Amino acid sequence: MENEDHKEPERIKSKKRREFDRDDGFGDWGGYMAAKRAKLLDQFKGSEIPRLSNIFEGVAIHVNGLTRPPIDELKNLMAAHGGVFHMYQVSSTTHIIASNLPNVKIKHLGTTPIVKPSWITESINYGKLLDYRRYLLYTNQSKTQPKIDFPIIEKNNNQEVAEPTNKAATKTASDPNFLEEFYNNSRLHLISTLGAEFKHLVGQMREKSDGIFVGKQKLLALKTNSNLLLIQNTVIMHIDMDCFFVSVSLRKRPDLKGKPVAITHARNGQLTNVKPDQKANREQEFSLYSERLPIGVTSRVDKIDTNSSLSEIASCSYEARQCGIKNGMFLGQAVKLCPELKTLPYDFEGIKSVSHSLYEIIASYTLDIEAVSCDEMYVDVTNILKETGLSVEEWATYIRNEIMNATQCPCSTGFGANRLQARLATKKAKPAGQYYLKSDDIESYMVEIKLSDLPGVGRATLGKLQKMGLNTCGDLQLVSLKTLQTELGQKLGENLKEQCVGIDNRPLNFHHERKSVSAEVNYGIRFKTIEECYNFLQNLSVEVFNRMNDINMRARCLTLKLLVRASEAPMETAKFLGHGICDSLSKSTTSNIVFNNPQIIFKESKILYEKLNPLFSDLRGVGLQLTKLEKNAPINSMLSKFLKQSNSKESVQIEEKLNISNIKQKNIKQSNSKYIQIEEKEDTQTSIISNIKQKIVSKNINGSKLKNKNNNNSGSISNYFEKTKSAENNPKSKQNRQLHQQIDMDVLNELPEDIRKEIMREYNLQEAVKPEGKKRKSQKQKCGKQSNQKIDSEKYLDVDTIQKYPFKNLTWDQIKPIIKKWMESDENPYEFDIEMIAEHFKQLAIDRKIEVLPKMFSYLHRNFSALNCIWHEAYFKIVNITQEGMVARYGGTLLVQRQFECCKM
């Protein structure tokens, strides 16, 4: 054998020398070094150092070079606090600990973060794993790769420091970017936003539906049984995702399934290093909180001590609920009930994704959906059951499996003859089950239902019922209606009396209509100056306007809500930057202002704030609510046409110069009668042609508009004539004369008659091109109270046909021709046109631009006098709305004409 081995080629010998000897005792472990590393790791894990905490759970360090504390001490610290120590750097090493390294070593260490040893010691001192980025010795950042400054979020484990150092950098409402960050991390904002979004989405889908449901067609194709069940009664399905936030987060942490889990911003339930003054503030706040509760209502802070975390649990698993933990409970109280409770952060993107999948699945079968929230809905499945022939149980199993397969999140379904029965059936079905509450079982089923399970029974109502000795629906059934109404009120008493026997006459709401839009913040409100307060109020105005604008609404009422620190409450709240014990203040606008832009919202909210006059440093919560919502009505077809032509860059160019002379200084005087009178002298000489700031843009033969090739020249009609006349002597005059075939007749028809005739002469236009049917109708008539005419509010064009604020950048000389054509084109004015003009006049008053208002009203009164009484009513409405702006800005009204021959205000 030896001779044969010597005869082998040299390359084979070399290859064999590189191979591991399977008999060396280390072959199964990848060789000597792998075995050595494994042995060292086993020795580390088998050390007798007592476990003090799990701060470094998931962390594996390798120490490189001389450090302080030394390597042996770091090794012992990792063993005592749940970490792993590697004598050699391996692929599973998460951090390298070093105090100083040469550049050549840094390059060879790869991308593993190199951290100072103080990261270990300070994390232990604070009782939690601090962010290593604060302790980086070196970074892998190159000069050509700019650094992205992500916010550093500390990772908590078993304990939380009462006042960690990073809290000093926590943003408050004084920060310009606070609102965006607050809403991006607010679970309540996410829930409310998604709920409103799905309610709106269901309505849109119903309006645009073609009646074809892909899911139902697929289900019909799978159905083999031709025997259809006769469904006689209505069947309502209630779907509720089980422990929704927990289920979504567990998709990324399947190892925690079956364990007590809670979703919260914090990671622990106990605080350390709480200072004496902080304890005193907590005790004082808890005492005040208990004193303010209604009689019979248990305080949430009864079992909370001064070291307990006040972070609220948004959702908890059923394993956690078995320990007594509930949604909304403080984390400090929860960890006392369940020390092994695991906490997970919110997965906002996952929540959005699962919610959309849920609604898409149900909408593929029916659109008889009432959206409740992002994880809950009511569905009328009567038609589905009739058309498919499925039983309630078969349908429940089928749809639950489809939702589970698509989202990896379980849900429960309840069925009944109305929404109340369906909801109560879901409670019995949970977790991950289904239940059909049949009509024959309702009476016996309702007897054992707790009163707290009925909709509309909150803590205060429940306290009153328990004071009466009532705990279940069975107890409530024995009480007379009169007794209930005496204790709870007529409406609530009647509702509860019906609900306790399973009666609920409320139909499903498929077309949800928003009643209000609001934006409220009760965290981080700490203002140091009044300017910070107003800046935040301005940002909040933009936020609430954007929300209203997203649903194409405008509002008629604004309410400012404030939380002001109670006089007996401590300055520092128990919860960091929370609102604490507060008094609630609110005030609403009384004038009929249309809130359709953020500037108006801010101005009015500032006025409301000044009326309430709280101390800005005591503010702990600020909210804006818009009510009396109405759709942004489409625009009148005729007026929108004129506005579009006036504002379009392709059809009209407006110059800023005005050839107006002899304008004398205007004086604003306020009379004793609270009327503000503006005196001015009329212009003595104004050229019609020089004052017109519109240019006709020609159209080509096929109807497309030609671009103006002389952009540097004046856009006035007179200059346009001069260019045309000089061109007649040019060899190309024949081509220029053909332009009359391309003139935009709509724009031409809007010009005054003398200007129109002059242009027609220039281009040899025939009289036939005069506007037909556009002659001013003789509308002067006695209006009388017997007139049946009304302002027309039906004929509308879509609001997108004009700019959002069409008059904003126009002068009165530019607006006047538009109003003139509006009066000539319609027999009766449209409601939205009147409001649009009135709001522009009102805004001029608010912006202190009132010198032009008398001229405007004089023009309107003079022209409206020749029209019928419907136009007179329109004039009065414009006056009233404008006066609101005058009163708000000056405290008095404008002196204008207030009557016609036939009527007066």
From TrEMBL:
Bias (Basic residues): 773-783
Keywords, comma-separated and alphabetical: DNA damage, DNA repair, DNA synthesis, DNA-binding, Magnesium, Metal-binding, Nucleotidyltransferase, Nucleus, Transferase
Family, as annotated: Belongs to the DNA polymerase type-Y family.
The protein's role, per its UniProt record: Deoxycytidyl transferase involved in DNA repair. Transfers a dCMP residue from dCTP to the 3'-end of a DNA primer in a template-dependent reaction. May assist in the first step in the bypass of abasic lesions by the insertion of a nucleotide opposite the lesion. Required for normal induction of mutations by physical and chemical agents.
GO CC field: nucleus
Enzyme category, top tier: transferase
InterPro entries: BRCT_dom, BRCT_dom_sf, DNA/RNA_pol_sf, DNA_pol_Y-fam_lit_finger_sf, DNA_pol_Y-fam_little_finger, IMS_HHH_1, REV1, Rev1_C
Enzyme Commission code: 2.7.7.-
GO biological process: one example: error-free translesion synthesis
Any Pfam family hit: REV1_C
Occurrences of domain BRCT (ranges): 51-137
Positions of the UniProt region annotated as Disordered: 1-22, 768-789
Name the UniProt record assigns to this protein: DNA repair protein REV1
Keyword Signal: no
